[in-house]
Amino acid sequence: MDRRGFVKNTGLVAGGLLISKLDAFAGEDTGIIKIGVIGCGDRGKGIIDMITRLPEKFKMISVCDVLDFRLAEAQRYAKGQAYKQFKDHRQMLDDKELDAVVVSVPLNAHYQIAADALKANKHLYLEKTMTYDIPQALNLVKLVKSHPKQVVQVGHQYRYSPLYYRVKEMINKGYLGQISQVDCRWDRNGSWRRPVPDASLERQINWRMYKEYSGGLVAELLSHQMDFINWAFDTHPSEFQATGGIDVYKDGRETYDNVQVLLRYPEQGMVGNFGATCGNARDGYLFKIKGTKGTVSLLTDQGMFYPEKSLLAEKGTVDGVTGATRITWNKEGGTPILPEPTKDGTWYALNDFYDKVKSGQLPDSNIHTGAKTAICVHLANQALYSKAAAYWKDEYNV
């Protein structure tokens, strides 16, 4: 189903499918958090824009980037807000006024900057994937344990979306029955290449294409869906198989532009299929969770539930699944999970970061869950580039 059809279908009201409202984002406003952003690329600028939309919770007092033109671009997203500029993140972290930092730099720099932020006693919002490799993930967990007063949240923002909370609740309550398959895609039709004003900056700007800096499509896109499955089922895969190649854009890149990852979750009796290509945008983002009683089909901001025909034949309606006495189905036999699309996931994630900094509580996307997903990404890439299966080890359980 394309996005246009998906949006049309979600215009229906879900009736009894709406489980009790989740109020996960309420928090007492006890003061403004003074925050800085390290890394002003595409993701960093998006976060700067979102921070300016939450003036009752955050005041951005500094930004940092090693590239001058990125610092200039950040000004347009700050909407005239005054702030300090730095090219060295360590100088920025020396500012005693600073309460918290967002780290949105190339993946290979995540660990060192996160470690420096913790040692500077700053709260930390660390973009996904948490770390570049497994040793960094395990070491960062140890470091966070030695800084118990610092809140560390990892940027897997779907853990904060009301839609994805609802789907997790449906899974936990057995509404989908026994789940055996997960099918995920995140496709695009484009090179993923950013313009480079100077050839010497190629690897800094297009870092996602080079193994020295990046985990490629698996880290940048598929990690979100892998993380949700880990969260929803309180699990992790045990076996990792993958294939792919540089099949579309033979332009000197090193990370693959066409990948398919197969994960096995033996405790759940479940197989996960995760794929991405830069050569076709028809499906875009798709996320399907398939059980014996029904299927959930998700976009980033809306979702549909499709009961199995046997369930409808048995009950006439799905009152045993949803508690509804009557549900209006669309022509494809589905019903929306929520009546309206949700906001950008970053909005929910930053609101929760504020609440957790104020309360000192552990975020849903925290150092332990972030490490688990970072390890999954690394093992998937290991299988992808070695052409051999990779396996989870007990030492990864942190």
From TrEMBL:
<keyword id="KW-0456">Lyase</keyword>
<dbReference type="InterPro" id="IPR000683">
    <property type="entry name" value="Gfo/Idh/MocA-like_OxRdtase_N"/>
</dbReference>
<dbReference type="Pfam" id="PF01408">
    <property type="entry name" value="GFO_IDH_MocA"/>
</dbReference>
<dbReference type="InterPro" id="IPR036291">
    <property type="entry name" value="NAD(P)-bd_dom_sf"/>
</dbReference>
<dbReference type="GO" id="GO:0016829">
    <property type="term" value="F:lyase activity"/>
</dbReference>
<feature type="domain" description="Gfo/Idh/MocA-like oxidoreductase N-terminal">
    <location>
        <begin position="33"/>
        <end position="156"/>
    </location>
</feature>
<feature type="domain" description="GFO/IDH/MocA-like oxidoreductase">
    <location>
        <begin position="166"/>
        <end position="296"/>
    </location>
</feature>
<dbReference type="InterPro" id="IPR055170">
    <property type="entry name" value="GFO_IDH_MocA-like_dom"/>
</dbReference>
<protein>
    <submittedName>
        <fullName>Hyaluronate lyase</fullName>
    </submittedName>
</protein>
<dbReference type="GO" id="GO:0000166">
    <property type="term" value="F:nucleotide binding"/>
</dbReference>
<dbReference type="Pfam" id="PF22725">
    <property type="entry name" value="GFO_IDH_MocA_C3"/>
</dbReference>
<dbReference type="InterPro" id="IPR050463">
    <property type="entry name" value="Gfo/Idh/MocA_oxidrdct_glycsds"/>
</dbReference>
